[in-house]
Structure formats: structure tokens, C-alpha cells
Amino acid sequence: MKEFNVILYYIYAPIENLVEYRDIHHQFCLDNNLLGRIIVAPEGLNGTVSGLKADCEAYMKWIKADGRFSGVEFKVEPQEGHTFKKLYVRIKKEIVHSELGVNPNVRTGKHLEPDEFKAMMHDEDVVLVDMRSNYEHSVGKFKGAVTFDMGNLRDLPDHIQEIDHLRDKKIITYCTGGIKCEKASAYLLEQGFEDVYQLHGGIIKYGLEAGGEDFDGKCYVFDGRLTTDVNSINPEVISECHVCQTKSDRMVNCANPVCNQHVAICEKCGEELEGACSPACKEHPKKRPYNGTGYYQKTLEGYKPEIAARTRKNTKKLHIVEDLGLKD
């Protein structure tokens, strides 16, 4: 029996007391042995957290008890252990970086629950549009979906012309957990697309509640797993090893931090190149030691897990300057 859970969630809800709330939130995670990455922003919360099942249950109950976040939905997956090695609770300008200038609380695409999405996804007048980055959909995507060669959601305006001819179709956007689609679908509406939907809860919820049918490959996730299985009905591997081109859905980050590209590399090539994506990266002087997973914990300079235990009087200004990227 798996004793841990990993939970994925977001909610668009205004937060005014950013520093105070971040400190309280961080302390709760410390007190309950939770690890993960949580973003606190003026527009809401976004987090992926792992911990023992009882600790995750306490965390979800605690968040929902706050009236601002009572409508939050959690995607919960059982795990053998922590999927993170550290805890970060950071203040950012947005809960998902987009620079699209839209407010999902004002207008966004129509939400489709997993069963509704499944019933509708293959209609002739429906087009699925993947709103994730190129390395994410390279390892897994829905059959027939439109994908963009973009590195970040903020690049979406550069790709709108690629679906301009589909304005008479029903557009269904999808992403990992639904958070990007809140803004992406809102942006499409702003650009004149009229019939716009989004998969509520994203790929993860579709897999958990509807079996993941017709999602090919695996879903890229932003924790130590790197990918997770979604399709329990008709799974298919669609990605190839970056090195030898054999079928492989084993995603890694290149061990050379200067490169750090996200690619599929089979276990054999991973061992031979020591986690690097090429011989040149294998010989790079800054190459990280390979532990067989291809996951490397991001280091955030100036951020300490115990920061929430400090007195706010001495750190309030530091929090704002560091987390929002402002200069003192």
C-alpha cells in the first residue's frame, strides 16, 4: 500500500496579504512534513505537494477552511514516497507565468468535466489544442491534438495564427492540471474565438476520473517523477530516445545544467551518457552527478526552508524584493 500522496492544485482567488499569508502557509507545510513547490500570487495559489496521506489530508482541509480558497479542487495520486526533496513557498506576480493580461475570474473558456470531454473530444467540429510547452507534449498528448512549438505560455500570442483557420470550430484547450487553460482559453476569447472550452482539471484529472483514453504517451509533471501514467485503457508510447531513436517515454533533464533540456532518453543511453543528452554535455565541466532518474532539484539562491520561522518584522521587505524580482 502506498503511504504517500502527491497533490496538484490551483485556484484563482485574490490574495492581498501576500507576505503574511506566505509565511503562515510555509509554516503549516513545515509543521506537517510537506515538501513541494507552492506559488502565492495576488491572483491566487498554485501548488504541487507531497507527503504522508494524513499530512496531505490535513493540508487540503486547511486550505479549504480559508474562505478565499473554499472552491479549490485537488488532484491526488498515491505514491511510494515524497516526489520532492525540498519545500519552496514563493511569492510571484502570477500563479502561472503568462503575461497574457487576462483575468480568468472575469472570463474564461467553458469548463468540461472529464466525462464530458471524453464524449465530445472526437466530434468532427471539435479541435483539441495543447497549451503546454514543446517538451511536455513531446512525451505525451491527446490523439489528433494541435500542438505549438513554444517554450512557455507567454509565447502563445506568437502561435495564434496557426489556429486562425479553426475559428469556426469548437476549440477545447487542455494542459497538465488546468491552470494554463484558464488563461489560455480566456486569451482565445479575447482574440475573437467564440466557441472555446477547457478540460477542467487537465490531463491528470482526466486520467484519474475517466481512465485517460486516447492520451498517448505519458504526462510530464514538475516533480521528481518527471512523467506519470495517464492512460489505463489504450496506452501508446509516442516519444523516441533523443540519442538512439528507439521508442522511449523515459523523460530526463540533461545532466549538464548549462543545457538542461528536457528530452526522452532510454535507460541504456542514460547510463552510457551519465544522464547527459550528448557526448559534449557528458564532458561538460559542470555536469551534475547522475543518479539514474534524470531529475535535479532546482536551487533557489537566498531561499531557506526555515524562512517562515523568522520574524516578519525583519524579513518582510526581503520577501517582497526577492520573490517578486524587484530591486531594493
From TrEMBL:
Q: TM segments? A: none
Tell me what this protein is called: tRNA uridine(34) hydroxylase
Write down the chemical reaction(s) this protein catalyses. Answer: uridine(34) in tRNA + AH2 + O2 = 5-hydroxyuridine(34) in tRNA + A + H2O
Asked if Oxidoreductase is a keyword of the record, the answer is yes
Task: Identify the species of origin.
Answer: Arcticibacterium luteifluviistationis
Similarity field: Belongs to the TrhO family.
Name a GO molecular-function annotation: oxidoreductase activity, acting on paired donors, with incorporation or reduction of molecular oxygen
Q: Which InterPro entries match?
A: Rhodanese-like_dom, Rhodanese-like_dom_sf, Rhodanese_C, TrhO, TRHO_N
**What PANTHER family does this protein's entry cite?**
RHODANESE-LIKE DOMAIN-CONTAINING PROTEIN 7-RELATED, THIOSULFATE SULFURTRANSFERASE/RHODANESE-LIKE DOMAIN-CONTAINING PROTEIN 2
Give any Pfam family that matches.
Rhodanese_C
Name the Enzyme Commission number(s) assigned to this protein: 1.14.-.-
Write the record's keywords in alphabetical order, separated by commas: Oxidoreductase, tRNA processing
> Does this entry carry the keyword Lyase?
no
Residue limits of the Rhodanese domain?
122-215
Q: What functional role does this protein have?
A: Catalyzes oxygen-dependent 5-hydroxyuridine (ho5U) modification at position 34 in tRNAs.
State any GO BP term from the record: tRNA modification
